Hints:
Layout: E1 9-13, H1 17-24, H2 28-48, E2 53-60, H3 68-83, H4 85-91, E3 94-99, H5 107-120, E4 126-134, H6 136-150, H7 156-161, E5 173-176, E6 195-198, H8 208-220
Parallel strand pairs: 1-2, 1-5, 2-4, 3-4, 5-6
Helix pairs in contact: 1-2, 2-3, 3-5
Amino acid sequence: MEKGQTPACIGIILDGNRRWAKKVGLPKFEGHRRGYARLIECARWVRDRNIKHLAVFAFSIENWNREASEVAYLMGLLMKMAKEALLELAKEGVRIRFIGKLDMLSEAVRKTILSVEKQSEKNERLTLWICLSYGARTEITAAAKEVASLGEEMTEDTLRKHFWSADMPDPDIIVRTGNEYRLSNFLLWQAAYSELFFIDTLWPEFSESVLDHILEEYGKRERRMGK
C-alpha cells in the first residue's frame, strides 16, 4: 500500500457465520460465536494498521425477523461480548460506539452497551462502530424527520449532521464477506464513494492476510471522486 493510502475508515458486512458452521459441521449458533470472536481479532488488526475507524454490520433491523431463539442467542452473545471482550478492547485504546435503532433492544442490553461506550469514550487508537439494529434507510428517514422537526433547511450537510453515524467518516472501503454481492441496507449514504470488496471468505475465516490483501488492492485503486 502506497504512502498516504491508509484508509480513514473501513466498513465490513459480517456475512457467512451460519454457512461456515454448516460447512464445518457445527450448530449455527457456534458460527455466530466464532464470528463475534473474529470481530474482536479484526478490530485489533485494523487498530494495529493505524486505521482510525472500523464500522461493522453486526445486526440489521431485518434480522429481528429471524427465529426468536436465534435472536435471543445473538442478544445474549452481545451481552457477554460487551461485558468481556469489548471491555478488553477498551483497555487497549479502542473506543466502542453502537449505532442503530437502539430502542428496539431490551433495557438490559441498552444499559450494558451504554456502559461500554462510557468506559471507552476517551480512547483514540481506534473507534469501533457496531451497527446494531441498524438499517441505512431507517437512519436517513430518522435524520430527515429530525431536520424537519427542528425547522432546519434540508441540505446534505444538515441531514448528515443528524445521522446516527454523524461522527463517523464515510468509509473508504466496504468489505462484504461470504460471496454475496450487495450492501443490504448498510451505510448506503456513506458508501457513495467507497471502494467495494466482495469476497468469498466466510466471516469466521477472515484473517490478517485477507485484510492485508484488501488494503494492498485499495492502495492500487485510483479514487477520482467524480473528477
